[in-house]
Specification:
By secondary structure, the protein is mainly alpha-helical. The chain contains 11 helices and 4 strands. The chain has one domain: NCX, central ion-binding region (A middle domain of Talin 1, Up-down Bundle). The chain is about 70% helix and about 0% strand. GO terms for molecular function: potassium:proton antiporter activity; sodium:proton antiporter activity.
């Protein structure tokens, strides 16, 4: 009989949200110095990781299909909070911050997470195997969501510039929610077997022991505390983030890349761990699933927030971004269709991510 799964109360995942909340009370409404800014940044990163951990504990308890929603919703709340906080503060780049963050999330997930997982998995296990049907459906959803939300605004004529008119924005937000809902239903209920890990022996379904009710309630409370702390600390840290980007000479749009890197760090680590265990399909689910959640939930939330936020909401991609997105789509299709990949595919995706980061810093 397997030993019961333990979730210790005295751990960094418990301490981080509590300490972050205390730090928020101390720094709120003030102009923190350099030391305080560094402490807030460390607390913010640790609390994001702790929030995702507690979301995973809750998800393990409630099971599917609701369990798969917990982590995505928690991460999306963090992402939207950071975006809205920085947009509300104004400044250069505020009008395009949502676009920059969401597109950075798409590039990081489809090239960074996927590329790292394929490379790590291939280096340890040789050729990596995954379900082309499930991964192809995920990729198609990502491409459709990204096209509706980020590509078309660059070509519509109802509004000047890279923005949607109000009806167009409402349609994109509604379409994003519908696609995300259908994807969740397909992945967790109707065709769940398409998204299970694949090995030479066939499909593998893993069963993990659920945490206790007490551990779940503790994680739920800590998750709420962590989300509150993240929203507040993001407000405290936002001037430092923008100042840091300006200090190194990067364009204001790079702030969105910083946000996406911070939010997607937990998924990146989880995907790499899954790849080391020869569960590449789990890694692909994390990568493409994060991209789908980032667009499918963030765009509707930002669209709603734009009602009371000042200034335009620029969503359309620029020429360089469009080329990188098109290249990512082509490469991703060639990676997914065979249902197997080597370290070469992983390296290609990582080079695409490096190109995106380099051109985001030096456009």
């Amino acid at each position: 009989m397997a030993a019961p799964v333990r979730f210790p109360l005295l751990s960094w995942t418990t301490a981080a949200p509590a300490l972050a909340l205390v730090l928020l009370v101390v720094t709120w409404g003030r102009h923190p110095g350099v030391v305080a800014v560094v402490l807030v940044a460390l607390a913010l990163a640790a609390t994001v990781l702790a929030a995702v951990h507690h979301a995973e504990v809750v998800a393990a308890r409630v099971g599917e299909p609701f369990g798969s929603l917990v982590l995505a919703v928690a991460v999306t709340v963090i992402e939207v909070a950071l975006i809205v906080t920085l947009m509300a503060s104004g400044g250069p780049g505020a009008s395009s911050l949502a676009r920059d963050t969401v597109f950075a999330a798409v590039m990081i997930t489809t090239n960074g997470i996927i590329g790292l997982a394929l490379l790590v998995g291939a280096l340890k296990h040789g050729t990596t195997l995954f379900n082309a049907e499930g991964s192809g459906a995920e990729l198609a959803t990502v491409v459709t969501l990204c096209t509706l939300s980020l590509v078309l605004p660059a070509f519509t004529t109802s509004r000047s510039g890279l923005q949607y008119s109000a009806p167009q924005l409402a349609f994109a937000a509604l379409a994003s929610l519908v696609l995300y809902g259908v994807f969740v239903f397909t992945q967790t209920i109707r065709h769940r077997d398409f998204f299970l890990p694949v090995t030479e022996e066939g499909v593998v379904e893993e069963h993990a022991e659920a945490p206790s009710g007490r551990a779940t309630m503790t994680s739920l409370v800590l998750l709420l505390i962590a989300l509150i702390a993240v929203v507040g600390l993001a407000k405290v840290e936002s001037p430092a983030i923008e100042a840091g980007v300006r200090a190194v000479g990067f364009p204001p749009s790079f702030v969105g890349v910083v946000i996406a890197l911070l939010v997607l760090l937990p998924e990146t680590l989880a995907a790499a761990r899954a790849a080391l265990r020869d569960r590449i399909q789990t890694s692909l689910n994390l990568g493409y699933g994060s991209a789908i959640a980032s667009i499918g939930l963030t765009i509707p939330a930002i669209s709603l927030a734009s009602v009371w936020l000042d200034g335009p909401l620029l969503l359309g991609l620029g020429p360089v971004q469009l080329i990188l997105f098109l290249l990512t789509v082509v490469v991703s299709m060639l990676t997914v269709i065979p249902g197997r990949a080597t370290r070469l595919q992983g390296a290609v995706h990582l080079v695409l991510l490096a190109a995106f980061l380099f051109l985001a810093a030096i456009p």
